Request: fold
Amino acid sequence: MSIAARLANLDWGRIETDLWTRGYSQTSSILSRRDCQSLVTLYKDESRFRKRVDMARHRFGVGEYKYFARPLPPIVKQLRETLYPPLATVANSWMDALNTSIRYAPTLSAFLHHCAKLGQVQPTPLLLRYEAEGYNCLHQDVYGEAVFPLQVAAFLNRPGADYTGGEFLLVEQRPRAQSSGEAVLPTQGALVIFTTQMRPVAGTRGYYRVNVRHGVSRLRSGQRFTLGIIFHDATT
Reply:
């Protein structure tokens, strides 16, 4: 079954409900073990990437990640193009709830054309690698004026077998309240769809914005690779 068909078979009603109520949704394994291994193998091929970031150097954490160059690997391209339309529907409903005039194009190509007009022309899908003692500080993936409010992480290794620790973290800060967090440990090949920067939450006077950051807890052992699918492009 193609990746597009696997994604079409997801329970998108449940995913939308999860995104509204929790700000993230976790799927079953969408990528096969072969898919995951093919992406992990790419990490050593420097010709496939446009930029490498050492997290420790920038005080982002401990580990490294690489942004893909164009053309994107077929798996990455299919995931990005197929996931965008249903998530754009959710994103537009979020903008309606927050009474903003922002609207997202129905297709990824149209949205990337908008990014390009703002000077955001560099692809943002990336591979992240962590080893024992590695972690990622809480952050937001914002690369310019255009920001798509949802993004996706695909988990390429087996928790408990290939690595221990390394939970995916989501922390949200509601106005005049303490932060709340979630720790998620998906199976190999699973996706987590989550909030990029902010999401709407229902209050007594309508919806208000909640700020969200994400990161990775410290690995106790092993090695962990993750594919990040960010829909807006970057300026650099």
Notes: The longest strand covers residues 206-216. Residues 3-229 form a domain with the Jelly Rolls fold (CATH 2.60.120.620).
